[in-house]
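Sat 14:20. Reprocessing the chain from the morning session after the first attempt stalled halfway. Input below, unchanged.
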Amino acid sequence: MSFTTSGQGHVGIGAVATTSAKLFIADTNATGTPLTPISSGGNSRMPMIWVSSASELPLIGIENTAANIKTSLVSANISDPGAGGYLGTNSNHPLYFFTNDETKMALLANGNFGVGTTTPSQALSVHGNALFSGNVNVANLIATGTLSVTGTSGTSTINSITIGPNGRFGFSTTTPNIANFEVATRTIAFNSGADGALGAWATANALPGIRGLHSSIIANGYVYVIGGTDGSYQSTIYYAKLNSDGSTGAWSTNANALPEIRGAHSSIVANGYVYVIGGSISGVSYQSTVFYAKLNSDGSTSAWATNANALPEIRGL
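Finished this time. Tokens:
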């Protein structure tokens, strides 16, 4: 191997010293290879150190023998791992990137890459804000803090959608603090057809008996028909499961009937209970009584109880 120097203090190892790079290292096949200027910051200049090879991997290696850490810079012309430039470690150690004498990014030996962290727990971990000017495609999105979505589509502005850390969901507001689901606009439209029309009516499972002046409620995937009249007032309760195609399952008669017959009453559901309020036990004999029962997961209800506090006045219809 040859070792040459020039009058300007340039050194060549394995090649003739040039007047360009301060240190020129080359194998015999690369001797005489002209150096290529490198452009940086709009200027073109020769590097201080140049390693050249036509048959092997031009490689600069740095090793810390005490810690057995090996770092290398490679310019590859082979098919595996592929032609290109490589910077990394040849030992089981992470590769760090730093500016202003402070580590900013880290590539761990397991392939995890961190920005703003030296201990990335995922394939990509970013500690701090990130800006993407293009699309971001994800299979699943999990947010452990507040997730805010804003943007535009065509000429229409998509107002802010915010999911707070307390689970509250807001449309057109970044601070949903009134209710768990808050819409800060005055118009809400449902129905993908956007014309308000209904599809054709269908008949499925009929009620076990005819009913009128009854009340109906929906809760936990079931529909209920409470009391009513078939010519005389009843205390019976029917319930059926609601199917995904819009039909109902077969109707069942609840084992626990109302404590009294009722018609022309109202019924509501709240906090896992159903309430039957007021109503009549005959054509005009209106009542102030309130009955309530717990809704079971199988669609049935528990035994009915009479609320200690009746309505201040009788009510029906």
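Confidence is low (pLDDT under 50) at residues 153-158.
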